[in-house]
Write a structure and sequence with these properties.
The protein is of the alpha+beta class and 418 residues long. It has helices spanning 39-52, 97-110, 140-144, 154-161, 173-181, 192-200, 225-239, 243-252, 300-315, 324-331, 395-415; strands at residues 57-64, 67-78, 83-84, 91-92, 162-164, 185-186, 276-278, 281-282, 286-288, 297-298, 347-348, 353-355, 358-365, 368-375, 380-386. It is globular, with a radius of gyration of 20 Å.
Length: 418
């Protein structure tokens, strides 16, 4: 842990899936895997990758058409105990969770709770107004496309959103950095409504003018976890059902994702991976008060069902979660050209991003790196889940390199098997 120090507090922790997990693979030069045609060749390649790139463990799923073409896990869920990372290993999904918020939004629209054009202040118990643009109407469509003008304040987001679970060892070096340098507390989870009221109520302890851009809604793209959590609360408030219960009822259960949950209290920590800073240092168990934006726990088996359903929806064959027109809405381009930074993506669906013929989303949190991607025509897709850190300075570039190497191998495998 000698490389960890105060100077690596990092603002990459603050944007988690911005210009790493969803960035263009072609911008980074890495050796391209050659000759991968069979599952055996892909497995051997990935096994070599985990052994030579300081990756604790990870799971990969590749689906083509209606079938899982490859699903395998590598490395360790717990290095010290030599516990293998398997397709059943539970891992936090970080910001890939936002794609489930997108699905929940489509479901809420189907149920008539609101539309993309609904002003959020027609739905909330308190008015949320951008003090720099008080006449601007923030709509649901702005929250799902990160164009609301609501942004995260890095110091507040890290220190007030993250918390270490009670009972966890806080005497380690990494715990000391989280507590003393990042300001993260060891405490019980705060209710979503109470957490968000501190941010958005003008009398709240976390209210800050820096949470707002000097721009009208819809004009500027700026990634926002707080805005995502706010949308989760809107779904919670209008449905009269907690957000985690709403997703369980309308998304997870229909897809038979029985090992997945947004409810931290329901997580089976016995089957959950250890989340690593590096091979010798692990993070304490932690959660997020604004859990909507990055707090889904799942595994490879469950995510394979989700990926196949999203692919069917992209192909025009979706029926499980809602009628096909709501899958179309989920993946429909919502913004005018040029609003999303070109180095990030081309356009935006309901949280999903579009780039070079793909629909995708990535995620990074403490000891977590994830990526999900499918062709816009729904012909194929893949996801990667790992307990490798991609947030601290230095680790983000290591994760990006690993992600690119895995993605290149998968793309070659798919090209040879379609």
């Amino acid at each position: 842990m000698t490389t960890l120090s105060k100077q690596i507090l990092l603002l990459t922790l603050f944007f988690l899936s911005l210009f790493t997990s969803c960035s263009n693979d072609d911008t980074t030069q890495n050796p391209t895997p050659n000759g991968i045609e069979t599952t055996e060749q892909l497995s051997a390649y990935l096994e070599n990758l985990v052994n030579n790139n300081a990756v604790p463990g990870f799971s990969v799923n590749v689906s083509i058409g209606n079938e899982i073409a490859f699903q395998e896990s590598f490395g360790y869920a717990n290095i010290a105990n030599q516990t293998a990372y398997t397709n059943q290993t539970i891992n936090n999904l970080a910001s890939v969770s936002k794609t489930f918020v997108g699905a929940a939004t489509a479901k809420a629209i189907e149920q008539g709770l609101f539309t993309l054009e609904t002003n959020i202040n027609d739905l909330l118990p308190i008015a949320i107004i951008n003090p720099k643009h008080p006449n601007g109407e923030i709509k649901i469509k702005h929250l799902v496309t990160h164009t609301s003008g609501i942004v995260d304040v890095p110091e507040t987001y890290i220190a007030s959103n993250y918390f270490i679970l009670p009972g966890e060892d806080v005497t380690t070096n990494i715990s000391s950095i989280l507590i003393n340098d990042l300001g993260i507390q060891q405490m019980e989870q705060v209710d979503l409504e109470d957490y968000l009221s501190e941010i958005f109520d003008t009398e709240g302890d976390l209210y800050n003018l820096d949470n707002y851009l000097d721009t009208a809604p819809g004009e500027t793209w700026a990634y926002s976890n707080d805005a995502t959590s706010l949308l989760g609360y809107i779904i919670e408030y209008t449905s009269e059902q907690s957000f985690d219960e709403y997703v369980e009822t309308h998304i997870l259960s229909p897809l038979q994702m029985s090992d997945s949950t947004f409810d931290l209290a329901a997580v089976d920590f016995q089957t959950m991976t250890t989340q690593y800073y590096d091979a010798s240092s692990s993070f304490p168990r932690y959660g997020n008060h604004g859990y909507v934006e990055g707090g889904l726990y799942s595994n490879s088996d469950d995510m394979s069902k989700y990926l196949l359903d999203m692919m069917k929806g992209a192909r025009g064959e979706g029926t499980v979660l809602f009628p096909q027109n709501y899958y179309d809405l989920l993946f429909q381009e919502q913004l005018e050209n040029g609003i999303v930074p070109t180095e990030f993506a081309e356009n935006h669906g309901l949280f999903w991003y579009m780039k070079e013929g793909n629909i995708m989303h990535g995620g990074n949190s403490l000891g977590v790196s994830t990526h999900i991607q499918l062709k816009q025509d729904g012909s194929s897709g893949f996801f990667i889940i790992t307990n490798m850190d991609g947030t601290f300075t230095g680790n983000e570039s290591k994760w990006e390199e690993v992600k690119i190497l895995i993605s290149q191998a998968i793309n070659q495998f798919v090209a040879n098997n379609q």
